[in-house]
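We modelled the chain as a single entity of 103 amino acids. Its sequence is:
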Amino acid sequence: MKQNPIPQLGAATALVQLLSENPNLPAATWTIGEHALHGHLHEGGFGALGRYAGVLGGSIRPVADFPLDGQAMRSHYLCATWRDVAVEVVVIVPVAAESAVAA
């Protein structure tokens, strides 16, 4: 009897390997999708995202600015592939007033 594969198992295994092989990466909150990982950094700012980029490669791109408690904020996404699994890591950082984009 052939069993159906577990869709999230590949992504979960990739996350375990990533964190086991790189124990000094900043802490993140992770969501495991069917074929992808999504991490959200809560501390460390852009530097923490850069540490993930150093391990994963990929590219970092800014996304639209948004207001939060009267301050302009911007999310930055790292999109990469780790062990054949798509990985997206995001961090939200304050935007300097002179570089904020009006909504």
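As a brief sanity check on the tokenised model: The longest helix spans residues 9-21. The radius of gyration is 16 Å.
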